[in-house]
Amino acid sequence: MESIEPKFIPLEFEGVEPEEQFDRGQRFFELIARRRTVREYSNRDVPFELIERAIATAGTGPSGANLQPWRFVVVRDAEVKRKIREAAEAEEYESYHNRMSDKWLRRLAPLGTDEHKPFLEIAPYLIVVFRITTIVEDGESEPTYYSQESVGIAVGLLLAALHNMGLATLTHTPSPMKFLQEILERPKNEVPFVLIPVGCPADNAKVPDIHRKPLDEIMHVI
Ligand code: IYR
After folding, report:
1. For residue 138, what pLDDT is reported?
2. Comparing C-alpha atoms, which of 88, 73, 79 is closest to residue 118?
3. 176-195: pLDDT as tens digits
4. Of all atoms in ligand 1, which is nearest to the CA of residue 111?
């Protein structure tokens, strides 16, 4: 195997004064804790620049071997949104009526979801995130590494960036999602990961009365 020498550059690192660290942590927590999954959207337009900033932010995420195995497809075309809604609702009908177990349906009951997905046409943007499973270099195919983890982290950054700009999001996973590859004409090595409607909440939008686990339930210190 040919040897590749790593090249290093100085780290640009902005430290935070110790007396500021907790405050900054608390303020960031309060910002992020106000994010809610939103299923009722307004059709109000959103500047495209905001979507670009959020995707640029997502693209800063760490990834296996720095392969950055993500593609963010931004859909604003009404006809494409209509096709996505139609296909998603067909899959979701099957899921809700024939595929999901009773246990699963019971878990979803507090969320009030069903096979109807009007937000797929109402939200001004759909960001469809694809996971790149393989790349081709010098005519040779190679898998990407830890792509599930990498894309999951990038989506977390994307949601945080959009929320920070005052935009509402929904992590939607119509299942199976293969229709997205077809409608959006993506190559076979790009596998749909999640579909994220983005926009402003509808006036008087409601969200389920559900709660996050307290810290002592999610943290275990040894
Ligand atoms: N994908 C379906 C069902 C669904 C599944 C889970 I897990 C959720 O947390 C919410 C919904 C839908 O979007 O309705």
Report:
1. 92
2. 88
3. 999 999 999 999 999 999 99
4. 10
Q: What is the pTM of this model?
A: 0.97
State how far the Cα of 6 lies from the Cα of 145, in Å rounded to an integer.
19
Report how far apart, in Å, the C-alpha atoms of 181 and of each of 87, 96, 170 are: 12, 22, 19
Is residue 171 in contact with ligand 1, taking CB distance under 6 Å? no
| Rounded distance from Cα 23 to ligand 1 centre (Å) | 35
Residues 6+ apart with CB under 8 A from 71: 129, 130, 132, 186, 190
pLDDT in tens, 118-150: 999 999 999 999 999 999 999 999 999 999 999
Q: Cβ contacts of residue 134 below 8 Å, gap of 6+?
A: 141, 142, 143, 144, 189
Residue 108 CB less than 6 A away from ligand 1: yes
Q: Using a 6 Å cutoff on CB, does residue 113 contact ligand 1?
A: yes
Ligand 1 atom 9: residue of nearest CA: 108
How far is it between the farthest Cα atoms of the chain?
62
Which protein residue's CA is at the shortest distance from atom 2 of ligand 1?
A: 174
- For ligand 1, the distance from its centroid to the CA atom of residue 173, given in whole angstroms, is 7
Q: Is the CB of 57 under 6 A from ligand 1?
A: no
Q: How confident is the model at residue 200 (pLDDT cuts 50, 70, 90)?
A: very high
Domains of the chain: 38-201 (3.40.109.10)
Q: What tens digit of pLDDT does each residue of 46-76 get? A: 999 999 999 999 999 999 999 999 999 999 9
pLDDT of residue 198: 98
Of all atoms in ligand 1, which is nearest to the CA of residue 174? Answer: 1
